[in-house]
Amino acid sequence: MGRLFAVSDVHGYGLLLERLLARAGYDPRADRLYLLGDYVNKGPDSAGTLELAHRLCGDGAVALQGNNERKWLHGTVPDGWETERYRRWIANMPLWAEHGRFLFVHAGLRPGVPLREQTPEDLTEIREPFFQGPALPGRIVVFGHTSTSRFGIPPDAVWVGAGKLGIDTGAGHGHYLIN
């Protein structure tokens, strides 16, 4: 097994994701990639970013639903899209993934609720109750959804908390996917 990668909140900036993976020397035959949601909205190319995520999944990556994909499932997809194809793919995305001691989610977990009893809204929209809640024993929760600048650190930095890693470095707010 090679390296473990996690990327969140690309928000229509698929070109930045491609650059990041190239710069990191990502090799889908050896490395493992988790995409933590919010591929769409805010940026210039939501369709292209979804297509890139789909292609990466074809090479072994795991793509999770984010709150923006859930909005599309329950709302309107922009005109000119292959609506049913995207809806089916997004609807079948998992809400979390596990790799060893790492638990990947879009937004976080509701404290005190077992993983299998978390609601989709908890996993894709939660903020403060998760940040302020206790760590999961023996686990590291890797999440996006909340730009790390909201934690009072530079927007291109990763937030580190007790048993938690916040990796939304602000592409949807004009920042970067990595520093």
TrEMBL record:
Q: Which InterPro entries match?
A: Ap4A_hydrolase, Calcineurin-like_PHP, Metallo-depent_PP-like
**Annotated Calcineurin-like phosphoesterase domain residues:** 3-129
- Which sequence ranges are marked TM in the entry? none
Gene3D superfamilies associated with the record? 3.60.21.10
Which PANTHER family does the entry mention?
METALLOPHOSPHOESTERASE, ZINC-DEPENDENT ENDOPOLYPHOSPHATASE
Name of protein:
Metallophosphoesterase
Q: Which organism is it from?
A: Cohnella hongkongensis
Taxonomy, top ranks, is: Bacteria, Bacillati, Bacillota, Bacilli, Bacillales
